[in-house]
Amino acid sequence: xxxxxxKFGGTSLRNRKTRTYVYRHVIEASxxxxxxxxxxxxxxxxxxxxxxxxxSLGNDHISKEESARLVSIGxxxxxxxxxxxxxxxxxxxxxxPFCDAGIITDxxxxxxxxxxxxxxxxxxxxxxxxxxxxGGFIGINDEGKVTTLGRGGSDYSAVLFADMLGLxxxxxxxxxxxxYTMDPKMHTYAMKYDQLSYDEMLNMKSRVLHDRCVTYxxxxxxxxxxxxTFSCSAGTIIxx
Length: 240
Known about the structure:
Blueprint: E1 3-8, H1 16-30, E2 34-39, H2 51-56, H3 64-88, E3 93-95, E4 103-105, E5 114-117, H4 120-128, E6 131-135, E7 138-140, E8 146-148, H5 153-164, E9 169-174, E10 179-180, E11 192-193, E12 195-197, H6 198-204, H7 211-219, E13 223-228, E14 236-239
Parallel strand pairs: 1-2, 1-9, 2-6, 3-6, 9-13, 12-14
Antiparallel strand pairs: 4-5, 7-8, 10-11, 13-14
Helix pairs in contact: 5-7, 6-7
């Protein structure tokens, strides 16, 4: 069973118009592979279901355990919405519940440490469906309670799923088509890197990918293909 893990960020999922670009990538990939689609919460603050918007609904009295449940709603809603839209387009899709996704963590609700990866249900759903959609950022502890993986947690989830499934590469899609020498939205003369090592990526302190994602990819030799949702360019390859 050939599998591709494809992760999409919040700005790519903000509305139905931006999601049409996402679906083009996923549908094309599903012609030759099973796809595990990892999704962030839709949009950015103050979009209704963005992580920071949900976080703002709590207050100083909410516990970290409750806060984890609150912010995890964004990824769960995103996965369910996207799966339903794929089904509407005739794609055999399924949104896997966070409790079946197999990312087992400790009890640190806001920046959990991953203890184990259980591939049982993910592989089962990939056998049953062409596209399986999972919310990123979310884990569960040994009591089945929601935990979260911190900022950039969906990117981290993507490499965890790749490792879980025995893959040596993962595709991460953002609203820019690779890693640049500086922000291409602000500097038209910014130059894109075709390839970077893990250490080079970490030393750049770039916000494009979270350090936990790159560090885990380095430790487990998982190549990251960073691509643009709204582009057909090759993007940037991050590897040894």
